[in-house]
């Protein structure tokens, strides 16, 4: 199924069906157990009534068995012989023996003979003389079992309770009395039928409600999808998807989508400006180099070799800067080498033999702060900061290294005109020059500080600028220490 609504409706229906079936089975089991217990209680009452009579030595033929049609009774002796049954009992099962014809008990026969020899106090209708006495009925919990019985031609299921009774002669008899399970079976069947009849209706209602609720909930998602399809087709990144007024997950999805579109639009605009600015920056040295070469080809004596070399070097530096920015934009990760930042600063300053202003260095002794990253990229950052300071300083450039807040700080200070506070973030944008009148050869392409900040960010650090007292600027590069 490709539809979320269909999958949600099907899933909810299946879950509800399983829950209803499980609950229904539980209800049926509890109902059956309760009704069976009630039948067992009725059977126990009937069995104890008969057992009480046996304990009082009531003759088998004179046992009063109440409601014999609903409570069939079977009495067995210690040997398992049937000595008495209720009226019209034709068949029985589940009591240990299926006999329904009474047989004389040997113990009873012997007692009868003894009573005749001893001149019985009275005779019963069967000619058995019994001396009145008192036995006892077992107080143990009865034994329950399920079985069937046929009474006057009608067969049914019964719950049997078995109670033991001992007469005055010490004869132990077991009374099996049953209670019908028809009411339990009818009740369970009725409840089961009602559940089976109502289950499809419940499932249809659940499926329908889930379908409608899911459809309503997903309606904003469809609106987001249509708008995204329109944005893709038109390539207009200024459009935004509709944001529902709710504060649920879909509203957050819409807001996140719009934030993504905003970031994407800004990235595309930045890329377009970058391409345009790069083309503009490349056009000037290429045009100058071409002009010089054409003049040199026509008039070799007029060829400005130094100017051609300078333009070539400028093109080489600009191409290297553009290539590094492209790698950074592509997500190139810095290396994992441990770099002694103080030694790196010393190395970079020692290679700057052509600077117009000498650089003052303040670096800790060996064993200073170390950082983790790409040595080449970090050297590029330090070099760009020194180039910027040399370009704007009047008489002094200083670089200092110190440990701070679990990392290392490289501070480059110059005594130039400084950076206006309102422009301190703008100078880190690509191809930005605050002094538009500065010659390109002197001012560069405006990529040095942009590259420096990008590299610092990729290394988990930051690059900021602030004033350096009354005059000048102070650039601080903070990098996390190696671990």
Explain what you see:
- This protein is an alpha+beta fold and 483 residues long.
- It has 3 domains: 4-187; 237-332, Signal transduction histidine kinase, dimerisation/phosphotransfer (DHp) domain (Helix Hairpins, Orthogonal Bundle), CATH 1.10.287; 334-480, 2-Layer Sandwich (Heat Shock Protein 90), CATH 3.30.565.10.
- It has 9 helices and 14 strands.
- Strands 1, 2, 3, 4, 5, 6 and 7 form a 7-stranded antiparallel beta sheet that branches. A 5-stranded mixed beta sheet has the order 9-11-12-14-13.
Record keyword descriptors for this entry.
single chain, 483 residues, alpha+beta, Helix Hairpins, Heat Shock Protein 90, 3 domains, 7-stranded antiparallel beta sheet, 5-stranded mixed beta sheet, 9 helices, 18% strand, rod-shaped
